[in-house]
Design brief:
- The protein contains 4 helices and no strands.
- Helix 1 packs antiparallel against helix 2 and helix 1 packs parallel to helix 3.
- Keywords: Membrane, Transmembrane, Transmembrane helix.
């Protein structure tokens, strides 16, 4: 379980670092598609699937969906929103609706993982 958390946080941190150190203005759209709509959701889904399949933390595993949702929102806030705030010298509020996107991806992954566990135990 700890390894899964470390892997997720590592991928999340590398995506933020990549934005600030390796992406320029012309790469922003590609970064958004690749990371915000590709790598982070897929990572969230796969790790949630593993958590659900192995039933880590029992019924409390669903709390991770909220954590994944918050981390997804923070990824956007730490990249595009912060760049916008620096450029225009104003403070933007986080887009809290981004939390819902991360939660939904995680719930689907955990649901499928839990379904796999249930199906295997009933065979």
């Amino acid at each position: 379980m700890l390894l899964l958390i470390i892997v997720y946080l590592g991928i999340w941190a590398v995506s933020i670092i990549a934005f600030w150190f390796f992406i320029n203005e012309s790469d922003a759209m590609g970064y958004s598609i690749m990371v915000m709509w590709g790598i982070l959701p897929v990572t969230t889904f796969v790790i949630s699937l593993i958590i659900g399949k192995n039933n880590y933390m029992g019924k409390r595993k669903w709390i991770f969906s909220v954590v994944f949702g918050i981390m997804y929102m923070l990824a956007e806030y730490a990249t595009f929103s912060t760049a916008n705030m620096i450029t225009f010298k104003k403070i933007n509020a986080p887009q809290f609706e981004m939390i819902l996107v991360g939660i939904i991806v995680s719930i689907v992954g955990m649901g499928i993982g839990s379904g796999i566990k249930y199906a295997k135990s009933n065979l």
